[in-house]
Amino acid sequence: NAGVMQNPRHLVRRRGQEARLRCSPMKGHSHVYWYRQLPEEGLKFMVYLQKENIIDESGMPKERFSAEFPKEGPSILRIQQVVRGDSAAYFCASSPPRQIYNEQFFGPGTRLTVL
Amino acid sequence: GQQVMQIPQYQHVQEGEDFTTYCNSSTTLSNIQWYKQRPGGHPVFLIQLVKSGEVKKQKRLTFQFGEAKKNSSLHITATQTTDVGTYFCAGGGYGGSQGNLIFGKGTKLSVKP
Q: Are the Cβ atoms of B45 and A103 closer than 8 angstroms?
């Protein structure tokens, strides 16, 4: 059973470009979470999604950021018109269908660098 | 909103010494989870505590959940170099916020051989 997969592992973008980060959850997992981590910082919750639904996006910046988890295919975190401050590691985590208080399985992350 | 504070931010110990990190929440938690992140790696789940006053052990690691379910600690006995990394606590809320976890900023542990 493959773990959570994220690609690309490293992404370099120039200011103003778009960044698309992909996350494939573990097999059988229907819940996906996105976190951002700045160097030497903790993990900041961004968004929680189930298939075709955004459950909680309270941590997502109102502008330029969007996330989706379509019926088929990976979850996508999109950052439009990137700025230098968007440089960070973005981690995706997944958990199985709602039991209660599920642990989260993290992917290896995408390191985004904005030049 | 809900906040999870974690102290200390950094801890340097000699191999064989003990280590403790503390986690405090501004609100009552439904559960608390602990994760470890090695340098350059991703967070890996260690344990989950749900009940008030719960204590769990994993070999040299002891995890506690406070009676009020607002604080927690992780204690490592006789640290080894393999314990190096950042330890995060993550608190779960109630109701609509059950799904997402609020992470503390972590305690970065370094172990001198």
A: yes
